[in-house]
Amino acid sequence: MATMVDVAAHAGVSVATVSHVLNDTRPVLPHTRQAVLDAIDALGYTPNTLARSLVTARTRSIGLAVSAISNPYFTEILQGVEAGALEHGYGLLLADPHDDPQHERKVVQLLHERRVDGLIVAPSADPEALLRYLGQHNVPTVFLDRLVAAPAGRPFRFDQVCAENAEPMAQLVGHLAERGHRRIGLVAGLPGLSTTNERISGYRHGLAGAGLPYDERLVAHGDSEATSAERATDALLSLAAPPTALVTGNNAMTIGALRALRERGLSVPDDLALCCFDDFAWADLFAPRLTAISQPSKEIGAQAVRLLLDRLASPDRPARTVRLPCAFVHRTSCGCAEPPRTSGASPTDLSQKSPAKGSLS
């Protein structure tokens, strides 16, 4: 089995230079680095990760804690995190907190005890125990998708990355209002999550922009998952004056809403128009095709890795919150006619306004 000494001899450099290339402990000239990498490849050298971690106090591993890993949105975030980690030579340890604050605290501790260099976490609706543990143990952490409010009067030391939520939701509501709808329902996410709060805020802003009043009876919480969303949709449809259009707060709740509509024998968009926050792979395969907000999920994951690596390199720098833009994907579940198919068509930029259509209300 090849050793670092063999690699150094093959590359014509010192063992210390090989160590610097492997551990990123000192800048190495590009041609020298390439010579070392070529020697590693030629000899089939495999670094001793355990020995290296003892020297550098780093394991070159990242802990990722996200709930609903089966959700296509978080699956794509996971792909972005994994690609970003591998690009920089980091491995990934994965845990599911199940959106439960106590379980969240437990799995984060387990990841930390495995000596990950840092954590990327999609926090629960009640992250108090999580924040307390991370603060006590000074764990480099990036929050993704869901933001955590900074404590009043105290510096916030955690980086965060998420998509824009309020403006895209407002555009969905505004588009339905342009279609003539005056009673637009919302199946909102789990109470307490920043994504839920921001999307409700966007919903209200969209109503106000269309000159429509806010009616709390038209908002039902689907708790960010399909079964609850099915019940929430059924409750909205049971109102004396039910909505003529519906917006769902994530892709799992869209599935629940569609189930509720099917149980009642209602069709989209003939009986009820539907728009959803979160695009997903099969949204284009439904009949009708689902009008949706597409989040940059893979880029959210990749950005979280970049923020974490920046934090590891500069532990004392100010915390950053990064928001990434979404795209409006205009299809037909909103009641619009099938748009013409064009080669290489891309989602609509959120700054563009959708054309008004005839009244459906």
Main traits of this protein?
361 residues, alpha/beta, 7-stranded mixed sheet, 15% strand, elongated, disordered C terminus
Structure, explained:
- This protein has twelve helices and 13 strands.
- It has helices spanning 4-11, 15-23, 30-43, 49-56, 72-87, 101-113, 128-137, 166-178, 194-209, 226-237, 251-263, 297-313; strands at residues 61-65, 91-95, 118-121, 141-144, 159-163, 184-188, 219-221, 245-248, 273-277, 291-294, 321-324, 327-329, 348-349.
- The strands form two sheets. Strands 7-6-8-9-10-12-13 form a seven-stranded mixed beta sheet, sandwiched between helices. Strands 2-1-3-4-5-11 form a six-stranded parallel beta sheet, sandwiched between helices.
- Strand 8, helix 11 (251-263) and strand 9 (273-277) form a beta-alpha-beta unit.
- Helix 1 (4-11) packs across helix 2.
- Mean pLDDT is 88; it is low at 351-361.
Secondary structure elements and pairings:
Elements: H1 4-11, H2 15-23, H3 30-43, H4 49-56, E1 61-65, H5 72-87, E2 91-95, H6 101-113, E3 118-121, H7 128-137, E4 141-144, E5 159-163, H8 166-178, E6 184-188, H9 194-209, E7 219-221, H10 226-237, E8 245-248, H11 251-263, E9 273-277, E10 291-294, H12 297-313, E11 321-324, E12 327-329, E13 348-349
Parallel strand pairs: 1-2, 1-3, 3-4, 4-5, 5-11, 6-7, 6-8, 8-9, 9-10
Antiparallel strand pairs: 10-12, 12-13
